[in-house]
Amino acid sequence: MSPKSSNWLLLSLSFKKTQPDPNKLINYRPISNLPFLSKTLEKVVSSQLCSFLQENGICEDFQSGFRPYHSTETALIRVTTDLLRSWLYLSTSATGS
Q1: pTM attached to this predicted model
Q2: Are residues 50 and 69 in the same domain?
Q3: C-alpha dist (Å) from residue 43 to 34, 48, 53, 54, 89
Q4: Domain-located, residue 2
Q5: Distance between terminal CA atoms of the chain?
Q6: At 73, phi and psi to the nearest 5?
Q7: What superkingdom does the record give (predicted)?
Q8: Is 72 inside any structural domain?
Q9: 31 is a domain residue
């Protein structure tokens, strides 16, 4: 059971047909605004949380997800670069150069 204060819903009414009779309720269909509101709230919370984590230095250096200008591509490039550097280091140290 949810509290009374959370039992609300925002709806818009839209016509079902191209030339409906506006006096008949059956010619309307409800459209919920909750997906729009939840996406907006999600963006706001995400933005504030990311700002807080970056300002306080809480983010891991190797964290790629959910950070601006970081993606799986940047993570893959970093791993590839580390592997190539390691391979070059091992190949040069093995030859004695």
Answers
A1: 0.45
A2: no
A3: 14, 9, 15, 16, 44
A4: no
A5: 73
A6: -65, -45
A7: Eukaryota
A8: yes
A9: yes
Residues 48 and 83 in one domain: no
d(CA 39, CA 49): 15
Asked if residue 23 has pLDDT above 90, the reply is no
State the residue range of the domain holding 71: 61-97
Domain assignment present for 1: no
Q: Give whole-number Cα distances, 72 to 39, 66, 79, 89, in Å.
A: 23, 10, 10, 25
Cα of 25 vs its chain's centroid, Å: 38
Condensed to tens digits (0 to 9), the pLDDT of residues 51-94 reads 898 899 888 877 777 777 888 888 899 999 999 999 998 888 87
Domain count, the chain: 2
Calculate what percentage of the chain has a pLDDT beyond 90.
21
